[in-house]
Amino acid sequence: MLKKIVKWTVLVIATLVVTLATCSSTIFAAATSEPTPSWGSWDQTTITYKTSNTSSYYKSVWKNAVKRWNKVGVVQLKAAKGDEKADITLTSSQSLSTKSGKLAGYTNYSYLNKGNDDNKIVSAKSTLNRSLLTKYGYTKNQRTNVATHEIGHALGLSHSASKASVMYASDRYASIDHQDKVGLQDAYND
Ligand SMILES: [Zn+2]
Fold first, then answer.
1. Number of domains comprising the chain
2. Is residue 2 part of a domain?
3. How many A from CA of 155 to the centre of ligand 1?
């Protein structure tokens, strides 16, 4: 019997490059900013997640990041119940072997390739690099910013060129900005 291929998934890694800057000056948003770009979205706007294999400290970091995205009001992230399979897995790792370990966090995902920025996400896993976050003295709020950035990838957002965006590639200081809300709306409301 021929097995029908029903989907084509591609694994890519979205990387968040660590910033080594010790500057604590205020970051000013550009006067006008483009909506944060996206590469795909989930079919549904209620998306389940689970935190796995991580400490209560990191569970709380992830839960705070989840709350931030839920507040935006475009998607609702809900904790998966019991043995239910979660759409997004949120975890942390003590040792990261990717890209010389210089990543504060990263997100793996699989999606149905639609050949444009409208890919259909089918699963995602975001990981925080504990040793690096500790080594460079990230505060809990900064770790939450990194977690928020990684969930942004898991929801379909790409990197933004704006330093005020949570999706700026190498920043620990920014949280969700207006342009990120608009970018998420664009990804889910079309
Ligand atoms: Zn990133």
1. 1
2. no
3. 12
Distance 173 CA to ligand 1 centre (A): 14
Q: How close is the Cα of 8 to the center of ligand 1, in Å?
A: 23
Contacts of 12 by beta carbon, 8 Å cutoff, 6+ apart: 108, 109
Low-confidence ranges of the chain (pLDDT < 50): 1-10, 17-31
Ligand 1 centroid–CA 169 distance in Å is: 5
d(CA 46, ligand 1 centre) in Å: 22
Is 118 contained in some domain? yes
Is there a domain that residue 190 lies in? no
Q: Rounded distance, CA 117 to CA 39, Å?
A: 4
CA distances from 114 to 10, 41, 144, 171 (A): 11, 11, 31, 30
Q: Range of 121's domain?
A: 9-16+35-185
Q: Tens of pLDDT along 94-132?
A: 876 655 557 888 898 888 887 677 789 999 999 999 988
